[in-house]
Amino acid sequence: MRKLQMVDLKSQYEKIKDTVNASIQEVLDTNTYINGPQVQQFQKSLEDYLGVKHVIPCANGTDALQIAMMGLGLQPGDEVITADFTFAATVEVIALLQLTPVLVDVEMGNMNISIEAIKKAITPKTKAIVPVHLFGRAANMDAIMDIANEHNLYVIEDNAQAIGADFTGRDGVKRKVGTIGHVGATSFFPSKNLGCYGDGGAIFTNDDALAHTLRGIVNHGMYVRYHHDVVGVNSRLDSIQAAVLNAKLPLLDSYNEARQNAARKYSKGFEGHKNIIAPTICDACDCHVFHQYTLRIIDANRDALMEHLLAKGIPCAIYYPIPLHSQKAYLDPRYKEEDFPITNQLVKEVISLPMHTELDDEQIRFIVDSVLEFFN
């Protein structure tokens, strides 16, 4: 059996190395390292793939979130509602811009932001909602957009973990997550479903005026060289990373399908186990692209299971061990533990198993058997 890895980028690269190497060599040959034709090609290809009018490439996913908020003109003190159970980048950029983060609980079934918690958190100072499509699963965008429309709020989709996932609205129309709100942001960190070989990110919107503002912000506020029309930052996707993404974007759907197939095999192995709650897999849609495959361990010692798996050479991880409302940087007397019952439960139960495009049946069987062995 091949060595198990949480993410096997080397095996993935071996299958596409000729295309990737040729694409990178083109950048080296033309010396177009910043905003070169590879970046422009990727921008257009990603717009076509997502069915969105504007893609604005940038340096990383955290910048993408920050620039999206800057582009919307949010002001210090404005309240931004987001999920407590996610990576810190989502709340980090809110705090950096001197906006007021409002963390709310998530829903047990999908681990995404709670619709009822959003409703309860809205005040006259609320200006935006940031749903996170956690672990690759689409949040309930119909309900979120209903709330936003009712209260005249912006919706900024954190799509760092779910690129390629679809959300089927109540109107029956499928839309790519990240393109439903006013603006979306994603990351191309190497381990993502669509990852480059360094840092990278992008912002999506169908709003022409907002796209124009965002294009200025990512480039020092310039539309014409040395003419700074808006306050900007230096956040550009470099051409070598775009070259890698150009090689991988045509394979994204097949990559996501491989993740879904691996998830089905995992879940089949855990089916009916009293101590294991596996993620729901919908055969009729692509609402979950499994950036992570995350179990909940019930009435058993999750940490002991992790030690058991690591001892057998099986990598695993806990995403995320500490809620954001308990992090030192984001402590706030407004937060009460009773407001986060689901998050506080999840951080004690979740464990993520290896998930990537190169998992084979032998590896999955070994991992499943090793998990089940722990409970016997």
Automatic annotation (TrEMBL):
InterPro entries listed in its UniProt record: DegT/StrS_aminotransferase, PyrdxlP-dep_Trfase, PyrdxlP-dep_Trfase_major, PyrdxlP-dep_Trfase_small
Pfam families from the UniProt entry: DegT_DnrJ_EryC1
Active site positions: K192
Keyword presence, Glycosyltransferase: no
Any GO molecular function: transaminase activity
Residues the record lists as N6-(pyridoxal phosphate)lysine modifications: K192
Listed name of the protein: dTDP-4-amino-4,6-dideoxygalactose transaminase
Species annotation: Flavobacterium saliperosum
